[in-house]
Amino acid sequence: MKRVELGGLSVSAEGLGCMGMSSVYGAADWDESIATIRRALDLGVTLIDTAAAYGIGHNEVLVGRAIAGRRDEVQLATKFGMDFTTARGKVVIRNEPAAIKAAADASLLRLGTDYIDLFYLHRVNPQVPFEDSIGALTELVEEGKVRHIGLSEVTGEQLRAAHAVHPIAAVQSEYSLWTRDPETVVAEAARALGVGLVAYSPLGRGFLTGTVDPARLAPTDGRRRLARFTDEAATANQAIADGVRRIAEGKGATSGQVAIAWVASRSGTLGIPVVPIPGTKRVPWVEQNAAALQVQLTADDMAALDELAGQVVGARY
Questions:
Q1: Average confidence score pLDDT of the chain
Q2: Model pLDDT for residues 191-212, shown as the tens digit of each residue
Q3: What own/partner pairs with CB < 8 Å and gap ≥ 24 does 264-268 have?
Q4: E strands present in the chain
Q5: What average pLDDT does this structure show over 29-50?
Q6: Choosing from 54, 120, 175, 200, which is the catalytic residue?
Q7: What distance in Å separates the CA atoms of residue 130 and residue 292, rounded to the nearest whole number?
Q8: How confident is residue 87, by pLDDT bands cut at 50, 70 and 90?
Q9: Which residue(s) pair with 111 in the sheet?
Q10: CATH: 2.30.40.10, 3.40.30.10, 3.20.20.100, 3.60.15.10. Which one for 3-205+262-295?
């Protein structure tokens, strides 16, 4: 798989999001998840994405076990700052320096490593000055515990403020055919500063694959709380999934591969590196996703997909 530069960090052009192996999307199997991560590495997918918040530490432990003995192959990305331990469904954003340093040590322990390639501030707490948070991250870089700093779900103004303290390698945001906020919220600043975009949920939380029936999601599946997956919205949004499927059928590809290929292709349009990190917890899907970058989209394909993007029904949250 080809490589992409994120602020000096060389990563695979597609990564693997591991959240669903521990939380949000219903039950997952530990052994199957481990096998999925290891198969991703075999396929050249080396940017492995996790977070302390996923399963409240469970996901980092799982990822650490999966990459044991193969650490040198991996660009390991994790995130800090979303504390779900206070009460179920409630989150406290912890961006203060002492909390950041404690979070880094805890993540290193769970991951079984002595450094993190890309350490993201998971969400912004506006009550904590950026210079304080990024200052603490800078100290972690100087100590060798962190190689590169990232931010998740930020605006261009926030990115510029952080970058003024220490270079930021990447911004992670939800980005797909039906979620295009980064194009207007942060892309301009990222382009000016040489910062990459890591796109999570490039498959529209699975909807764009055409294989997800919102009515049959497990009771524990977090998508049941999302507006786009309600009965009325899902029925309307099926036209988008159908449009993606028609393009995929013409190429002998899957809908998911077309959706991922679209996200990866936006690098040229936006003028910044764009790395999709589709999530899965099963080997067949990671194999299918890894082949997505071989799908070639024509100008006509892109125009048709852009038209579909304007039809989405329902807010992102």
A1: 94
A2: 999 999 999 999 998 889 988 8
A3: 264/13, 264/14, 264/292, 264/293, 265/297, 265/302, 266/175, 267/4
A4: 3-6, 9-12, 15-17, 47-49, 75-80, 82-83, 92-93, 116-121, 146-152, 170-174, 196-200, 274-277
A5: 97
A6: 54
A7: 37
A8: low
A9: none
A10: 3.20.20.100
pLDDT at 88 over 70: no
> Which amino acid is present at 152?
S
54 counts as catalytic? yes
Reference 305, options 235, 234, 257; nearest CA is 257
Dmax over Cα atoms in the chain, in whole Å? 54
Phi/psi at 5 (5° precision): -95, 125
Displacement of CA 126 from its chain's centroid (Å)? 22
pTM given for the model: 0.94
Other Cβ atoms less than 10 A from the Cβ of 232: the count is 10
Q: Rounded to an integer, what distance in angstroms lies between the CA atom of residue 292 and that of residue 247? A: 13
Q: Where are the domains of the chain?
A: 3-205+262-295
Beta-ladder partners of 10: 5
At 266, which amino acid appears? R
